[in-house]
Amino acid sequence: MTRSHPLPILCGPLLLVLLLLPCAPLVSAHPFGPYGYIPPRAIHLALTGDPTEMVVSWQTSIPTNESVVKVFKAASDADPSSSAPLLVASFSGNQSTYLLSAGIFHNVKVTGLEPSSTYEYSCGSASGWTPNFSFKTAAKPALANATHPASRFIMYGDMGITGSAQTVRAVSDRVASDDIHFIYHAGDYGYGDDRAAVFYEMSWDVFFDHMQEVMPFIPYMVPLPQHCLCLQGSLFLHLSLSHVIASKRPHHDH
């Protein structure tokens, strides 16, 4: 005689008990906030025309509760007895988007800086911070002399996300080895219109990813978009929100 296994009999009541047990909420307490870790990406800098200012911009996948930049002074400059950079100030900015699936764009203006000075900074929110990057502020026009030489910058245009690896590498190496003050990309960046409309935002995301050895460290200035103007309005907004457009001429002698 074959004995039946009691498990089938218990399955029904057991399942009912499990369903009735109190469940923890799907979004529980988390040290980074209710949505967990939201890392900033596509970090980049822009000049404003004032050598005491710098604009820091970045992107997150979803909104955060704040957009903050913490600015530090190197320990050797602020306090020679300390080995860690010292916090100078924190600055808050704004976040906006034209399309939630394209991400959230954060812009923070840092003010009150000393011209011709190097600072460290970290950007983000309680949901996630970047590591410390650094930038150098512009010189005052009157100081562009033998002691404070005229700015050196890199200028190029027509760079997409394919076939540009050598250019990206050359620019990254030059920035790492020389005192380059800013980059001026004279239009036609990313070439989103080489692809179907569904890939527009992806094209610009890849472009920013390619330039992350450069953009967090020196201002990356652009003119009004060219390849974007004939396309969907979202592309113009994408670049306008994620870049601070070079509407003012930087305070440099070229």
How does this structure look, described?
The protein has 254 residues and is α+β, with helices and mostly antiparallel strands. Helix content is 20%, strand content 25%. The radius of gyration is 24 Å and the shape is globular.
Quick tags:
254 residues, 4-stranded antiparallel β-sheet, single chain, alpha+beta, 20% helix, 14 strands
N-end to C-end Cα span: 98 Å
Number of helices: 5
Low-confidence stretches: 6-31, 227-254
Topology, number of strands: 14
| Class per helix and strand makeup | alpha+beta
Q: Rough shape? A: globular
**Relative helix content:** 10-25%
Q: Helix and strand succession?
A: HEEEHEEEEEEEEHEEHEH
Entry summary:
By secondary structure, this protein is an alpha+beta fold. Helix content is 20%, strand content 25%. It is built from five helices and 14 strands.
Furnish the topology, listing elements before pairings.
Blueprint: H1 7-20, E1 41-46, E2 54-60, E3 68-73, H2 75-78, E4 86-92, E5 94-96, E6 104-110, E7 118-125, E8 128-129, E9 133-136, E10 153-156, E11 159-160, H3 165-177, E12 182-185, E13 189-190, H4 200-210, E14 220-221, H5 233-242
Parallel strand pairs: 10-12, 11-13, 12-14
Antiparallel strand pairs: 1-2, 2-6, 3-4, 3-7, 5-6, 7-8, 7-9
